């Protein structure tokens, strides 16, 4: 895919670049996106029905096992060229901020440093009652395991639907989206709020906004540049073109 000359010129002079990533960035690592068909025993469930505190209260074992299945998917996968291209981009701009909706930890694993994780991290576990992150616990065979501190149930340290995003992270993401020269919106369906509001904030602040996604999204028509391609192809192309 050829990167539009005009976009390359804007990037060449940009001081501040902010990137928002969604599950599409991990698609080429073989990790299904949130809306991809769930496989196997999870086929009959919709993620939005499992990723909520209500679902956990109703059936903690089912929700814990869904996350255990996803943790295994992530553990058996690795970052792809899209993640590595973002590591390179971070080193090419004086002021770069990566904001991710993903919970797989691949950006950190690939070497990105300036990361805001809006929705938490599937590899971190916390107590459902107290909210404290728990690094280890005795495996008594309970599913979900019990908090070693208070005996409450353990849960993944991710932001579920109907739960607020962490204050500091959403604030940092909003500032980075409203104070950048170029905003890249990569691999997200732009459906889940408040993360989906970030590209609009970038637009309103006068940034050049680029969407990278093989499919159209509710945001595509508003983007200054809509690159209809895979993140693992387009992002390395951008890095290569900027290095010329
Ligand atoms: C909150 C962690 C308030 C958990 C996730 C109506 C209007 C506005 C808002 C709402 C509304 N009704 C309800 C809400 C609020 C709700 C919401 O937005 N719902 C949506 C469904 C309408 N939001 C919330 O509940 C948020 N909290 O609002 O709290 C509040 C305030 C104070 C006090 C109390 C409450 C919390 C939202 C966070 C939910 N947690 N994840 C987990 O992972 O288990 S969201 C989850 O879904 C993902 O993190 C991701 O961000 C999101 C979307 O998933 P996907 O669609 O799979 O992924 P993505 O969007 O990234 O789409 C994939 C894209 O990739 C596609 O476009 C595809 O084309 C593209 N693609 C595929 N292959 C490639 C590719 N792109 C590039 N390259 C490829 N190779």
Provide a concise account of the structure shown.
With 244 residues, this protein is α/β, with parallel strands linked by helices.
Count of DSSP-assigned helices: 10
Number of strands: 8
What is the CATH third-level topology name of the largest domain? Answer: Rossmann fold
Silhouette: elongated
Fraction in helix:
25-40%
- Contiguous low-pLDDT stretches (5 residues minimum) are none
Rg for CA atoms? 19 Å
User: What top-tier CATH class of the largest domain fits best?
Assistant: Alpha Beta
Task: Supply the helix-strand structural class.
Answer: alpha/beta
Termini separation: 16 Å
Chain-averaged pLDDT: 96
Q: Architecture of the largest domain in CATH?
A: 3-Layer(aba) Sandwich
Bound ligands, each once: ligand BV8
Say which CATH homologous superfamily of the largest domain is assigned: TPP-binding domain
Please summarize the sheet with the most strands: 6 strands, parallel
Looking at how many chains there are and whether they match, the oligomeric state comes to single chain
* Tally of individual domains: 2
Strand order of the largest sheet: 3-2-1-6-7-8
Strand/helix succession: HEHHHHHEHEEEHEHEEH
